[in-house]
TrEMBL record, chain A:
Gene3D superfamilies membership: Potassium Channel Kv1.1, Chain A (3.30.710.10)
Protein name as annotated: BTB domain-containing protein
Domain BTB: 23-102
SUPFAM superfamilies tied to this protein: POZ domain (SSF54695)
Taxonomic source organism: Immersiella caudata
From TrEMBL, chain B:
PANTHER family (alphabetical): CULLIN
Domain of life: Eukaryota
Name used for this protein in its record: Cullin
Short name of any one Pfam family annotated for the protein: Cullin_AB
GO biological process: ubiquitin-dependent protein catabolic process
Keywords per UniProt: Isopeptide bond, Ubl conjugation
Claim: Glycoprotein is one of the keywords in the record: no
Entry keyword Ribosomal protein: no
Recorded family membership: Belongs to the cullin family.
Annotated ranges, domain Cullin family profile: 452-707
A molecular-function term among this protein's GO annotations: ubiquitin protein ligase binding
Length: 251, 840
């Protein structure tokens, strides 16, 4: 019956969600407290590994010089995070999925979840948050909290992280006419210059990207966006190598 | 839904202008935490808070700033807090000792000072390493979002490298060392101290291995640059080359000392111990990365460098090891050489030449041994008369018996030698295949250099099979046969052996001297070793013997049915031998064959009748066959009656005596002549010869056996002497008496003796003749298949084809080719030199 080798384990793990059994770490956020397990936390992210690890470094044990307080106390206090988002995050750590049950705007909620996942380096959560965010804005862009979500995205994720930014830009670009009718959107453009700038260049960039194909240069492994046709040659923009066989390296 | 969202606004990190303003408080927090970490106050720090601070800085795009700030903070800290204590350790004294090797300090002092320095370095490193780990942990987000994106070394790599840049590579320019010709860095001191300590340990001191291990693993953790490229570990780039160089020098000196002061056995054990030590040292003191390389150093400097000199050492060298069976020495030697040279060249050469020497010594000993004194237990007794044993002890052995003894000694010696090397091979050389083949080759070489080896091997088998039926157990005989087969493998001239074996086997079979089952066992072993062709003649001989047995019985039945009493109770046991299977000597056509005349002796009428009767019987089932009676090969049991000697009243002579006399067929013919002789008459040698037509040589031998040997002296010779001359006269010995009823006349032909020089030359000549035919056949066979072939190719092909039988001489092949050209089997191809064409 087992579809995958891990199925039974995954099911059993759910039972330990917020359970005192074997619990050796507590996550605190605001007024909430969740019983967790260092092993589970560490399996999800290197952030938790480092946080919990100290006690186990041989040198620390020998010399008695302590590591950080979390490793001593087992109490992990997460600050500057919404406790409702943290609660869902903890849920995810044991269930590999979460849902927005708090009645918060799902666009904002998922944007914050994405940011939190990025901050604590939980790759799987980041991925799932992105999917949920995409569904949410595609249906909810007309509502005002889309604008809140945009602000969140531009403030709480690193600039290089295109994950949510491109989604936001795409939806905004598609529905630009409607959005511009909204004064708040115009205000947002003024307050968030990065967003405004990216919006401006997004249109042409997008149409160019749609027309062009992506090729991975075999000599420098970087991706080129080219309008290449069979029989012609192009220089790689990164390493300047000339070739006419880009067709074999399309990605 | 939108309204609901706004009603419950989510708490969010507010303030718009955080991008720049956030940095200062966050950095401040981090900076004070870093100080806490360095001063061991980190216990109260919250990892989350610090992480969050660095996260926020990076999120606000200040990653670069943070990166450089952290780096410069650490550099400053390093300069102010880590380096000073290390600098204190680097005293002028330490520099003097480690780099200049200034004299005047005791070993103990040197060790203490070195270890103190290393301990200081180690402590600084361990602490630095831990601190950098903690700080890098806090800066995780920086590494992921900024450092990795911008392809810079991680914050850990960038800060851990400080240790390399500011301590190890710190130039000692400040120190006023006039003796130092050029600048040194701390790394040089570190290396020198470590190497010095390791050399101390090699000399038997006890050092702090853990300390050294910590230092070397530090070098393994540090790289040439912050990029941390795998093969650029400082350990591999800087330490290891120096370590290997120093070890090289150490072992070179050690090897020179050993070759001067010690013997090879000590050296071997020393090499083995050093190899184990160094391999252990890699595990406990330095790094396993070096294991193979340091082994190589020992192999070249300690094992190979003076290998030749050690092996050549008088007494303890390889020769001594082999001669005295120093199993352990040789085992170590094998292991060592196996490491450095899988072809075993140094060992192989000496081993081979030693075997050759020992082999030739056997031959030399043989020449110097006096076999005229019988060996213990009558083992060399070539004669087989049971009652002759006690006499043999008193008498010097006959020439033939001496030669047999020599053959057996030779075989025994060779087998002993073989056992010795087999023992060395399995106990010391791990049954190495290369060595096995070279040992085998050497044995084969010296055995074949000895020109009587084929004959001696055959004689050895002969002797054992003859005596085997009497005194030895089955297992013993088995072992002997095995040994014989081993020797057989070495022989290259197998056709020579075949010839001798045929001759010896014929004698054994005809005179019924051996156990037929053992004989068959031996031959079947030979068959499995050398193939069917080799043993076909021997098997034919067995078959003849069996058929003859049946034939004799059938004939007896036949006679009984006839009820013919006219045969005067002559009972015929006959061996019908197929000419090709049996040696020509036995078939009575030895020297005479070429002259074209087969000597047929004249049988007495009684025997003649019997012969005719049997011939008739024989032809009943097999028409067209010709039987030739070979008088020289048969025996006869004769019942003799010696009448009472008149005038003797007492003693055996006073009665009539009946004896059963066993003589050769010729002997029988001779004795029958005396039946018709009146008392007192005699026959001269010539008369006997004329009547019987027995070849003079055979006659001479048979008369000798009947008239000279005391136990069967039924004839009296006039004049009495030790040898028979053509002028002698013979008469019936009426005085003959013997204690036993059955008397066997010593049959000279039945003794398998070693050939005399003339005989052997004869055998070789015959053998060469046979070989010529075999070579002819091979050439024709090859040319028929190839049609056209060059001289060299043809010669090679012939040698390959005949390798299993013998090693033909090149000159002989050439002669045969020329002969075939003359006989127009082949022709030369015109225009080409030395190419032949087959003429159909």
């Amino acid at each position: 019956m087992a579809e995958t080798a891990t199925e039974g384990f995954v099911t059993a793990l759910k039972g330990y969600h917020n359970s005192a059994t074997f619990s050796d770490a507590v996550i605190r956020c605001g007024n909430k407290e969740f019983k967790t397990h260092r092993l589970v936390l560490s399996s999800h992210s290197g952030f938790f590994v480092k946080m919990c690890t100290g006690k186990h470094i041989l040198w620390v044990r020998l010399t008695g010089v302590p590591y950080f307080q979390e490793s001593e106390t087992g109490i992990i206090t997460l600050e500057e995070a919404d406790e409702r988002v943290v609660e869902a995050m903890v849920y995810f750590l044991y269930h590999f999925d979460y849902s927005n049950t708090q009645g918060i705007s799902s666009m904002v909620f998922n944007a914050q979840m994405y940011s939190l996942a990025d901050r604590y380096m939980i790759a799987a959560l980041k991925h799932i948050a992105k999917e949920k965010f995409e569904t949410a804005i595609k249906t909810g862009w007309a509502m005002d909290d889309f604008l809140l979500a945009i602000t969140d995205v531009y403030e709480s994720t690193p600039e290089d992280d295109r994950g949510l930014r491109d989604l936001v830009l795409d939806v905004s670009h598609t529905n630009l006419g409607k959005l511009l009718e909204n004064a708040r959107f115009q205000e947002l453009l003024r307050d968030t210059p990065r967003f405004a700038a990216e919006m401006v260049s997004y249109g042409p960039e997008k149409s160019r990207r749609d027309a062009a194909e992506r090729y991975r240069c075999p000599s420098c492994t970087k991706v080129n966006i080219l309008e290449w046709q069979r029989g012609s040659y192009f220089y790689c923009a990164h390493c300047n190598s000339r070739r006419s066989d880009w067709g074999s390296y399309q990605v | 839904m939108a309204s609901r969202a706004r009603m419950k606004p989510i708490r969010r990190p507010a303030a718009k202008n955080r991008e720049t303003s956030d940095f200062e408080p966050c950095w401040h927090l981090l900076r004070s935490a870093m100080i806490d970490i360095h001063t061991k106050n980190a216990g109260g720090l919250s990892f989350e808070a610090l992480y969050r601070a660095s996260y926020k800085i990076v999120l606000r795009k200040k990653g670069e700033l943070l990166y450089t700030e952290v780096k410069s903070f650490e550099e400053a800290w390093f300069r102010d807090h880590v380096m000073p204590p290390i600098a204190e350790l680097i005293t002028n004294n330490l520099i003097n000792i480690s780099l200049i090797q200034a004299p005047g300090t005791s070993l103990h002092e040197r060790r203490q000072m070195g270890e103190k320095f290393l301990r200081g370095v180690r402590d600084a490193w361990v602490e630095h390493n831990l601190n950098m780990n903690m700080i890098a942990d806090v800066m995780m987000y920086l590494d992921r979002a900024y450092t990795a994106e911008t392809k810079q070394p991680s914050i850990f790599a960038a800060t851990i490298g400080l240790f390399r840049d500011h301590i190890l590579r710190n130039t000692l320019s400040a120190s006023s060392q006039e003796q130092l010709t050029h600048e040194f860095i701390v790394f040089d001191i570190l290396n020198a101290v470590v190497l010095d300590l390791i050399n101390m340990e090699r000399d038997g001191d006890i050092i702090d291995r853990n300390l050294l291990k910590k230092i070397t693993s530090m070098l393994e953790d540090l790289y040439e640059t912050d990029e941390e490229i795998d093969d650029q570990k400082l350990y591999l780039r800087v330490f290891e080359p120096r370590y290997l160089q120093a070890s090289k020098a150490f072992y070179r000196r050690e090897c020179e000392r050993l070759v001067r002061d010690s013997d090879a056995g000590t050296w071997l054990r020393h090499c083995r111990r050093r190899l184990i030590e160094e391999s252990d040292r890699c595990g406990t003191t330095i790094s396993l990365l070096t294991s193979e390389k340091i082994s190589k150093v020992i192999e070249t400097e300690l094992v190979m460098a003076k290998l030749g000199e050690f092996l050549a050492m008088e007494g303890s060298g390889l020769k001594g090891m082999i001669d005295n069976d120093r199993i352990e020495d040789l085992s170590i030697l094998y292991e060592l050489i196996a490491r450095v040279d899988p072809s075993m060249a140094p060992l192989k050469a000496t081993l081979q030449s030693r075997i050759m020497e020992l082999g030739l010594e056997i031959e030399k000993n043989l020449k110097n041994t006096d076999f005229s004194v019988p060996a213990n237990g009558g083992g060399a007794d070539g004669d087989d008369g049971a009652d002759a044993v006690d006499k043999a002890k008193a008498q010097p052995l006959t020439v033939a018996a001496q030669q047999t003894a020599a053959a057996i000694k030779w075989v025994d010696d060779v087998l002993t030698l073989k056992d010795k090397f087999d023992n060395l091979w399995s106990n010391c050389f791990q049954e190495d295949l290369v060595l096995q083949s070279s040992i085998t080759k050497s044995f084969s070489d010296f055995i074949n250099v000895f020109n009587r080896s084929s004959e001696y091997v055959s004689l050895f088998i002969d002797d054992n099979l003859k005596r085997g039926t009497k005194s030895k157990t089955e297992a013993e005989v088995d072992a002997v046969l095995d040994k014989a087969i081993i020797l057989l493998r070495y022989l290259t001239d197998r056709d020579m052996f075949e010839r001798y074996y045929q001759k010896h086997l014929a004698r054994r079979l005809l005179h019924n001297k051996s156990d037929i089952d053992t004989e068959k066992d031996m031959v079947s072993r030979m068959r499995s070793e050398m193939g069917n062709a080799f043993t076909s003649k021997f098997e034919g001989m067995f078959k003849d013997m069996e058929l003859s047995k049946d034939l004799s019985e059938n004939y007896r039945d036949h006679i009984r049915q006839l009820g013919d009493v006219d045969t005067k109770k002559v009972d015929l046991g006959i061996h019908v031998l197929t000419t090709n299977n049996w040696p020509p000597e036995v078939m009575g056509r030895s020297a005479n064959q070429e002259e074209g005349s087969k000597v047929q002796c004249t049988y007495p009428p009684a025997v003649k009748r019997l012969q005719d009767s049997f011939y008739k019987f024989y032809l009943k089932d097999r028409s067209g066959r010709v039987l030739t009676w070979v008088g020289s090969a048969g025996t006869a049991d004769i019942k003799c009656v010696f009448p009472k000697v008149p005038g003797k009243e007492t003693g055996p002579l006073s009665k009539e005596r009946r004896y059963e006399l066993n003589v050769s067929t010729y002997g029988m013919i001779i004795l029958l002549l005396f039946n018709d002789l009146a008392e007192g008459e005699s026959l001269s040698f010539e008369e006997i010869q004329a009547t019987t037509n027995i070849p003079p040589q055979d006659l001479q031998r048979n008369l000798a056996s009947l008239s000279i040997a005391p136990k069967a002296r039924v004839l009296l010779k006039e004049p009495f002497s030790k040898s028979v001359k053509p002028t002698d006269k013979f008469s019936f010995n009426t005085q003959f008496a013997s204690k036993s009823m059955k008397i066997k006349a010593p049959t000279i032909t039945a003794i398998s003796k070693v050939e005399g020089d003339d005989e052997r030359r004869e055998t070789e000549r015959k053998n060469d003749q046979t070989r010529s035919h075999v070579i002819d056949a091979a050439i024709v066979r090859i040319m028929k298949a190839r049609k056209q072939l060059g001289h060299t190719a043809l010669t090679t092909e012939v040698i390959t084809q005949l390798a299993n039988r013998f090693k033909p001489e090149i000159s002989l092949i050439k002669k045969r080719i020329e002969d075939l050209l003359n006989r127009e089997y082949l022709e030369r191809v015109e225009g080409e030199t030395a190419v032949y064409r087959y003429l159909a």
